[in-house]
């Protein structure tokens, strides 16, 4: 690894950590009027289009199953989501939003739309925003590929 590569990696990691903090802070502000936290919004949002098991939500979000389980249980306790039988796996129930949960998400939509419009303008338009998304998705896929290689090396080394 060259010094320039190390510096690029460090700048990227620090930038992503900062961006994560910024997104969490704005997500907390957007979710609060709907009675949600950023974590609850994230988990509930993951199941709006289709019910998913907790492990599936964790994979999509890139966080631990235990973290998702804790939030999912709170959503169910508060009537924002429910567990449904999973035809593919008897023990791994599917998390699905309730109408109360969907209503909470709808209360976030105006603030979310406003932030999207303001961020689009700040980035210089939709094309620039789309390119930003592509770069972040590419970075995420590259990290996934490296993790897969490392997992394969670890698994291979244990045989």
UniProtKB/TrEMBL annotation:
PROSITE patterns documented for this protein: HTH_MARR_2
A Pfam entry, by short name: MarR_2
HTH marR-type domain mapped to chain residues: 1-141
Regions crossing the membrane: none
Gene3D superfamilies: Winged helix-like DNA-binding domain superfamily/Winged helix DNA-binding domain
The name this protein goes by in its record: MarR family winged helix-turn-helix transcriptional regulator
Taxonomic source organism: Streptomyces roseoviridis
